[in-house]
Amino acid sequence: MAGKSTADIHHHHTRLVLKYAFISRLVLISLIVLWRSLLSPYDTSASINPSCLSNTTSIIGLFSGSNSYSKSDSPPVLLPRLASMIEDSIVWDSVYFVRIAQCGYEYEQNYAFLPLIPICISLLSRTVFAPLIPFIGQRAVLGLSGYVLNNLAFVLASFYLYRLSAIILKDSEVALRPTILFCLNPASIFYSTIYTESMYALCSIGGLYYLMRGSNNIATLWLALTGYARSNGVLNAGYICFQTMHTSYKTAFVRKSVGGTLVVLLSGALRSLFIISPFIAFQAYGYYNMCVGGSSDEMRPWCKARLPLLYSYIQSRYWGVGFLKYFQVKQIPNFVLASPILSLALCTIIHYVKLWPEVFVSLGFRESSPNKGSVASPMPLGRNAGSKSVGFQSENRSNAGQGDSLRWRKPALREENYAVQPSEDESSENPGFKPIILVPFILHLVVMVATAFFVMHVQVSTRFLSASPPLYWFGSYVMASPRLSKRWGYIIWTYCAAYILLGSLLFSNFYPFT
After folding, report:
1. Which of 43, 85, 198, 290 is 20 to 30 A from 167, alpha carbon to alpha carbon?
2. Distance CA 197, CA 234 (A)
3. 310: left (phi over 0), alpha (psi -120 to 50) or beta
4. Per-residue pLDDT at 411 exceeds 80
5. What is the end-to-end Cα distance of the chain in Å, rounded?
């Protein structure tokens, strides 16, 4: 990279990221096709597709008013073998997403699957891939649309992870490592099939990237979309709350502006509400469809609750999800299956909290003590991360010349900027990493880990946590450390490769995985 400008390095790394992401998806799809051709599926019900209920419309009909396709209206397809291959690959939760895109929310349990994926699938099937319906049929086109959508979303999520990491870590070369690790993450099978992981990762990581750049309005829009993809998208409002807390504190006690403080608080409250509103709106939509207009005797039990939350009822009623409900002897194998990702997440949390305990305990209001690493200490992830040097900078190299592309963009005390960003002057004087910036990421990870371990089906942890950037920052740090890289690098890569192979084998053939 000698002699290259920062922009050239950025463009080169961006091309590498897109290349790795694209190749990793080709490998996953090839594995799916290979295992499907070599083995017989455990459950052969994937191709069953009864006609839609007459009283429902497709999910896209919510916007266009179009009726759902009727199976009886579909003429014979011209490529039945290709159609059958695509339809047979629609397994597990993919069945629900494709069915909702085709027929709408027909049954109560369908409301556990949020509408972002079905809406996007239905839109693609009616526009870009509509000419393929005579060749492979409408359901196969829906499946193909889902595959294309999620694989493309994964490539874009990888791009945004690299850009976010470059901002956080202040080094484009170091930012490349966690992005490559993400391209080969152990939940990769779910990023290449019709699941929510790719779209959620794209919206959440993309939203965090824009938030760190100070584009709060764009970030809020992206983070709000996560609430249409997965229920835990509401947790992303925590980033806005953290920003609002610090910005309002500075406005009130540094600038001593009462009016400015009220503006910051109101703006933060509105943005947070905007992020959680999609999930709330969908619950209201479910309540309207399932509870309004029926007699009291016919109403479902959750309709009569003081807080009629459909999602929680479905998760508990149909899937047995609840606090400590999974703590059973027969579930020990599933805890073992989830133990690698939970261990990595726990080590990530402990590592960063131990580095800067004052910062985390005070939620970023106190700076690190000098003996633990100053506020301007470099991020412990990278080139020479040994016992004495925890930073990514070499002794003879400073990243102060990285250029404007890696610097924070706007003054810290302006309301529209992220509260933990240093100003341009601070960046010039102290180009090192600011540990306060990790606090909301780690807090978010703590809540996610606790939810996965104590509430959810624990084996889902592998994909549930896979969109959390700190996991890849810490994993890359471990693999780059001279003391740890040989042993732990081998373990991490083996873990990723094993879960990719195992996942593509089991999941694609309708066997239980995670």
Report:
1. 198
2. 15
3. alpha
4. no
5. 41
Q: Which of 138, 128, 111 is nearest to 288 (CA)?
A: 111
Rounded to two decimals, the pTM is 0.86
CA torsion sign for 96, 512, 158, 224 is: positive
Q: Taking the CB of residue 333, how many other CB atoms lie within 10 A of it?
A: 10
SS3 content of the chain, % helix, strand, coil (to 5): 70, 0, 30
SS3 for 217-234 is: HHHHHHHHHHHHHCHHHH
Q: Is 481 helix (H, G, I), strand (E, B) or coil?
A: coil
How far apart are alpha carbons 248 and 257 in whole angstroms? Answer: 9
Q: How far apart are CA 217 and CA 440, in angstroms?
A: 19
Rounded CA separation 101/109 (Å)? 15
- Between CA 24 and CA 40 the distance in angstroms is 25
pLDDT of residue 48: 75
**Long-range contacts at 252-256 (CB < 8 A, ≥ 24 apart):** 254/413, 255/413
Handedness of CA 133, 138, 144, 146 (dihedral sign): positive
User: Which is it for the CA torsion 145, 147, 151, 157, positive or negative?
Assistant: positive
What would the pLDDT profile of 25-84 be if each residue is shown by its tens digit?
A: 999 999 999 999 898 887 777 667 788 886 665 555 554 444 445 555 567 889 999 999
Alpha carbon distance 248, 271 (integer Å) = 14
CB 35 within 8 A of CB 161: no
Query: CA-CA distance, 213 to 166, in Å (whole number)?
Result: 11
Q: From CA 379, how far away is CA 372, in angstroms rounded?
A: 13
Pick from 222-226, 270-274, 359-363: least confident: 359-363
- List the one residue out of 224, 166, 162 whose CA is nearest residue 19: 162
State the average pLDDT for the chain: 83
Q: Is the dihedral of CA 404, 392, 159, 474 positive or negative?
A: negative
- Please state, in angstroms and rounded to a whole number, the distance separating the CA atoms of residues 381 and 365: 23
Reading the block at residue 346, the tokens are 């726990």
CB-neighbour burial class of residue 306 (10 A; exposed 0-12, middle 13-18, buried 19+): exposed
Burial profile 236-270: b = 16 or more Cβ within 10 angstroms, e = fewer: bbbbbbbbbbbbbebbbeeeeeeebbeebbebbee
- Collapsed DSSP state (helix, strand, coil) of residue 168: helix
Where do the DSSP E strands lie in 30-145?
none
- Is there a contact between 218 and 227 (Cβ–Cβ < 8 Å)? no
Distance CA 255, CA 278 (A): 35
Write the pLDDT tens digit of every residue in 227-241. 999 999 999 999 999
